[in-house]
Every structure is written in structure tokens, then in C-alpha cells.
Amino acid sequence: MDPIRIDDPRDSRVAAYLDIRERDLAGRQGRFVAEGKVVLDLLLSSGRFGAESILVLENRLDGLEDILHKAPADLPVYIVTSAVMDAIAGFHMHRGILAIGRKETPQAVGPLLDALSGQALVVVLVGIANHDNMGSIFRNAAAFGADAVLMDATCCDPLYRKAIRVSVGAALKIPFASFTDTSGFTATLAERGFEQFALSPRGNTDIRDARPAQRLALYLGTEGEGLPESLLARLQTVRITMSKGFDSLNVAAASAIALHHFSHR
Amino acid sequence: MDPIRIDDPRDSRVAAYLDIRERDLAGRQGRFVAEGKVVLDLLLSSGRFGAESILVLENRLDGLEDILHKAPADLPVYIVTSAVMDAIAGFHMHRGILAIGRKETPQAVGPLLDALSGQALVVVLVGIANHDNMGSIFRNAAAFGADAVLMDATCCDPLYRKAIRVSVGAALKIPFASFTDTSGFTATLAERGFEQFALSPRGNTDIRDARPAQRLALYLGTEGEGLPESLLARLQTVRITMSKGFDSLNVAAASAIALHHFSHR
């Protein structure tokens, strides 16, 4: 691997990195941006996604040798000065480590579930539209060994730059898939022997009393609305008991508690 | 309460709201900024901090009647158009509800602990310098009925605007105090009969096996460094068991799991 020096921010070889923030909003046609050392490491080592190139500040290259050895020999590594990096990205990039990854063809729910073993923990997200929460939930899912994340069509993209960063790369590690028909999806999980728990402030059972199952699905909804009533009516519901005077918990914090409880020790 | 219309962003009556972001960094001499409906409600109803004034978008006033009734009759409520609000704040304030609160004289640790009952849960923070994490920890502390938050001198200010917002007002509700001498502080808690647990990835006991005590102190450290070894050596240490391939948990998520475990059911 021979790093390639880039001096012109408009060099076509780094076009995918131009105006990172604005392009986040506009989408980037099958690509995503990985930021930082830990995330780059996961991108190169998990093997789930291909990488197109790496863009590094010249003074960060030395600390990256071990990680860059995991990259295919022909993966271009561009090095730039801080001024060129900022001119490319469109704002001050103090981390100085970026990579472009290629999204895969979205996986279908069925094959993803078929690939799971007899002992499986899956996270089901409905209406999680905030990238911070999405990233945090992926991070917690990875920390507690969840095998997959399944999302309804109203969830935001876990491969959005900020979601990947907040997930500390977990979004590049845990398989995920989207579904459109929620009630059909619930039936699919039931057929495959999943016990299905919905987390809700009005859940019937305190989560401390909910028995982990060999195959378990945990449903999480948005902070404001929560999971739709139609779904709650069809699933076992669990609650996290909170203080009477302040029953407010962020969905990411709730996911940490619930996943810790349901994780296989 | 008669709302006072402000048309000039430079009106001295709203000077405390000028350039909110920049002033956050510079400090604001004994004042803090409360944002949003829920936080305003807590400011006015918890009674822990005095309010100096309220600044509201004219079209948000109708939805605030119930909350504004909790304010002292002589508290000024300023109403402005969206353009004036943005000109005052220095950026687009889409929430449209702000208030200035007065910090109290910092409470000392001793009197704060003396005021606690026989059953008490306190959170001890060492080196939490990120306002997001600080706010999230306060939110979790409130959700699980913690009675106080005690911080070493390297922690950031829980009354920073963003910390209050992320805490959903919990920073205005839970008593807190700072200490400088950590080992003296540990002795103070021991004298008062607190069992003291330090959360650490290398903790001796899985937190699921740690028995909640009547009086309990939970120590949390920074994400990177964790709690100092000198402290870990003197306390019972507990860990949150994570996946071998991904043992990464945000300190706020860890606080949620630990506080949920130690909260009195």
C-alpha cells in the first residue's frame, strides 16, 4: 500500500468526500462515509462492506499502519494536509480519518432470519428516525451480542455518517434488514420460534421478571409515540419501572437496559 | 401575568438571551438557560432554582398557559416573533421557549449527604467532561430515583444549556454538589454507611450479582480512561458483561443499566 498524496481538493479521486455534511442529507448513491480509527478498523476487518478508498491526514498515517494492513492491497489510501482535508470535507475534520464504503444490496428479512442459529437475539425498531438514537441502539446491540437489527420503513438509515460514528462502527458489523408489513413480519418471527417482547412504558410485565428465551425479538419504538397500539396488542409487553416523579428515559438508554437483561450471559 | 412584547433584539430586558451559543462557552455569571416546554415546567415547579425571565415565541404562548401559571406573578414573560427570537439567540431557535434561571450558591457535599434519608442512592461522577453524557446521566439518575449526583472537580457543569436540555430538566431537579479530594470524599460516604460500587469494564463482580444496599453510591468514570486505579482499589468494583467481539458501551448507557439495577423497586 503506497499512500497517494492529494494536493488539490477538487481532484476527482477524492470527489466522494466533497462537502460531506451536505451530501449526507442528499444521500450518496450506494456509498457511506466511515469516520475515525475504530470505525475504519471495523469496516476493513468485518468484511461486510467493501471499501472504495481511504482519506487520511498526513500526520495520522503513522498510527494507522496496523489497521491499513487489513485493507486489500489495491485499496487507494489518499493522504492530505489539514487544509486540503478541510477544503474537501467542507468543515474542520479534526479526526482526520475517513473512508468511503459501498452499501450492499439490501438484505431481505427472510434470508437474514434463516441464517441465525437456534439461540438468537434480534432487535426490532419501529419509527426510530433520529440518527443518534439509531447509532446508540446499534452500539448497545453489538455490546450485548444481538444477532440482527430489523427495521420498519419509517426508521432512518443506520449507514448515515453520524449513525455509524455514534454506533462506533456497530452499524458495519451487525446484519440489518428492513420490512414494510409489520403484522406480516411479526408472523414471520413467530413461525421461526421467536418469543417477541415489546418495550413500552405501559408494559404488563416488569422487564426484571421477563424470562430470556433462546430465540428472542425485542421491539423498540420512538420516544414520543412509542410502539403502535396494534403492535402492543399482539406481543408480550415489558416495562422498565421508573421513578414516579420522572418517568422519562431515552430510547437508547432503554435499549441498553433491555438488551443487557435479555443478552445471553 | 401579562406577556411583554419585545420588538428590538437589543432591548436590555432580553440581554441575558443574546448570542446564546457563544455565551454558553464564556459562562454566564451565575445564570443558566432553560430550553423547551418540559424543562421550563421543571424549572418553575421544582422550586430549586429561581427564574429571572421567560422568552417565548408569540405562537407558542397558547400551549404554555398551564405551565406559566406555576411562575411567580411578577416573573417577566417576553414574547417575540420568530425573526426577533433568532436575532436575539444568534441562531434559529425552532423550539421557541427559553428561560433564564439563577444558579444557587454551590451546595457542599456534607450538608447534601446529611439531608438524605436512610434509603439513598447517589451517583458519583469522576471526569465526565462531555455535556451530552452529563445530561444523559442526570436523566437516567432521575428516572431511577437517585437522590443526589456528586462530581469531582474535572466534571463539566450540569447547568450548561445542552446538559440541561439532554437531561430533560433532571439537572434542575436532582441535588448535586462537587468535591475536590476524592479519597476524603470516599471516607465521608463510608462514615455515613454508604456501600460504594465502582463501575468498570474490569470490575470483579458482574453487576447482576451485586446486591443493592439501603444506602448506595455508584461511581462512574470517563469513557476512555475509566475510573482511576487508586479509586478502584478502594471500592467494590462491578462490571457490565458485554460481547467479546464488541465491548464498547457509552457511559450514559452504562449508567442506565447500573442505576436500573440498583434502584429501589
Keywords:
homodimer, 265 residues, alpha/beta, 60s Ribosomal Protein L30, Chain: A, Alpha/beta knot, 2 domains, seven-stranded parallel β-sheet, five-stranded mixed β-sheet, 12 strands, 22% strand, elongated, methyltransferase (chains A, B), Alpha/beta_knot_MTases (chains A, B), tRNA_m1G_MTases_N (chains A, B)
Structure description:
Chains A, B: Pfam families: SpoU_methylase. Chains A, B: This is RNA methyltransferase. Chains A, B: One of its GO terms (molecular function) is RNA binding. Chain A has a 7-stranded parallel beta sheet, with helices on both faces. In chain A, strands 1-4-3-5-2 form a 5-stranded mixed beta sheet. Helices cover 30% and strands 22% of the residues of chain A. Chain A is elongated and about 60 Å long. Chain A has 265 residues and is an alpha/beta fold. The first copy, chain A, has helices spanning 20-26, 37-46, 65-68, 82-89, 109-114, 131-143, 161-166, 182-191, 229-232, 251-262, and strands at residues 4-5, 31-35, 50-57, 77-80, 97-102, 120-125, 148-152, 176-179, 195-199, 205-206, 215-220, 236-239. Chain A starts with a strand and ends with a helix. At the A-B interface, helix 6 and helix 10 of A face helix 6 and helix 10 of B.
Strand content of chain A: 15-25%
What's the CATH first level of the largest domain in chain A? Alpha Beta
CATH homologous superfamily of the largest domain in chain A? SPOUT methyltransferase, trefoil knot domain
| Main sheet specs of chain A | 7 strands, parallel
Count helical runs of chain A: 10
Structural category of chain A: alpha/beta
Question: In the CATH hierarchy, what is the architecture of the largest domain in chain A at level 2?
Answer: 3-Layer(aba) Sandwich
Q: Give the low-pLDDT segments of chain A.
A: none
Oligomeric state, counting identical vs distinct chains = homodimer
Shape of chain A: elongated
Q: Any idea of the CATH topology of the largest domain in chain A?
A: Alpha/beta knot
Give the neighbour order of strands across the main sheet of chain A: 8-7-6-11-9-12-10
Q: Considering residues with a beta carbon less than 8 A from a beta carbon on another chain, report the largest interface and each chain's count.
A: A-B, 30 and 31 residues
Please tally the β strands of chain A and state the result: 12
Percent helix of chain A, as a range, is: 25-40%
Order of helices and strands of chain A: EHEHEHEHEHEHEHEHEEEHEH
Average pLDDT number of chain A: 93
The structural domain count of chain A equals: 2
